[in-house]
TrEMBL record:
This is Fatty acid hydroxylase domain-containing protein. GO terms for biological process: lipid biosynthetic process. It is found in: Membrane. GO terms for molecular function: iron ion binding; oxidoreductase activity. Its main location: membrane. It comes from the Eukaryota. Signal peptide: none annotated. The chain crosses the membrane at residues 72-88, 100-122, 152-170, 182-202. Residues 190-308 form the Fatty acid hydroxylase domain. Keywords: Membrane, Transmembrane, Transmembrane helix. The keyword Isomerase does not apply.
Length: 308
């Protein structure tokens, strides 16, 4: 796993009168080799990320971040399990037709998805430092609160397991040569649109109907989220966002191959994490941006930050 970026010099974030920010002290303990602790520290950035810069702070106009760089990043870091599977099936006598081979395949994809997710977190931290974060002159980003620490850690583990398990359940050609075509980006884009539709219906409902607010309430405990806080939720929201909504989206778009499902999972994880980064830039969506922007429909990081 890539090196962590622990924050050991931060002071506890105190609870002030009328403050939205709960206490966070868990990061002050020395890092350990415990896998749970390492997962918990994936999203820890430099101390200045969590501090208000003050009213005199001014970075100037918001930069426009090119999405071709993000598509390149996603492809460069997400593609390796597909490449390895293709190479093994094409150039060796290995076949994924035994239980042992299938277990190894699952482990390969699961392990690499963790590496890929880590790279997303590190990339977010890098550009949060380069570009700054939205509203940083008034407040820094939120750290995982002590009261939510174990919940967020468990949710991250569940997310990684369920998303990869889902593509193995839905991808019936998982043992064959990875199948991609010129239509794969279109199919993944359609999946993103379907996913956003189902998400919008559920999300809007939780805000519009008081009786449903309990589903989404915990997620809004953070007002200035970071990528790891994208997963901050109660059981109902976790079930909807991690499993049910992606499954529904996969059922209303053209049938996708195993490799396309994996690509959709990689793009979705990226959008979910970066969308909660608060990066102060015009930062759109990597696969749908070129289509949505000319129509005035592009979604950018600032949109979700304003929502929080």
């Amino acid at each position: 796993m890539p090196a962590m970026n622990p924050v050991s010099s931060l002071e506890p974030i105190p609870v002030k009168k009328k403050s939205y920010r709960p206490t966070s002290t868990w990061h002050l303990k020395p890092p350990t080799r415990n896998p749970i602790d390492r997962i918990r520290r994936l999203d820890l950035g430099p101390p200045e990320m969590y501090e208000a810069k003050g009213p005199e702070w001014d970075r100037g106009p918001m930069p426009n971040h090119p999405m071709w760089r993000e598509n390149l990043f996603i492809l460069r870091w997400a593609v390796w399990p597909i490449v390895i599977q293709w190479a093994l099936l094409r150039y060796t006598d290995i076949q994924i037709d035994s239980t042992f081979a299938q277990i190894v395949q699952v482990i390969l994809y699961q392990a690499w998805f963790i590496v890929y997710g880590t790279r997303i977190f590190l990339r977010a931290q890098r550009f949060m430092k380069i570009y700054g974060t939205l509203n940083e002159e008034k407040k820094g980003r939120d750290m995982i609160a002590d009261v939510h620490r174990d919940r967020v850690t468990l949710a991250l583990v569940i997310f990684l397991i369920v998303r990869i398990s889902g593509i193995f359940v839905l991808g019936k050609d998982r043992s064959a040569d990875p199948s991609l075509s010129i239509w794969s980006p279109v199919k993944i884009g359609l999946f993103q649109i379907a996913l956003d539709y189902f998400f919008y219906v559920y999300h809007r409902s939780t805000h519009d109907f008081d009786s449903l607010w309990f589903i989404h309430q915990k997620h809004h405990a953070t007002k200035a989220p970071t990528p790891s806080l994208a997963i901050l939720a109660d059981n109902y929201q976790e079930a909807l966002e991690i499993a049910i909504i992606p499954f529904l989206a996969s059922q209303v778009v053209p049938k996708m191959s195993f490799a396309e499902l994996y690509g959709a999972a990689a793009y979705t994880a990226y959008v979910e994490a970066i969308g909660h980064s608060g990066i102060r830039a015009y930062w759109g969506t990597p696969i749908l941006g070129p289509v949505l922007k000319p129509l005035g429909m592009d979604l950018v990081v600032e949109d979700h930050d304003l929502h929080h």
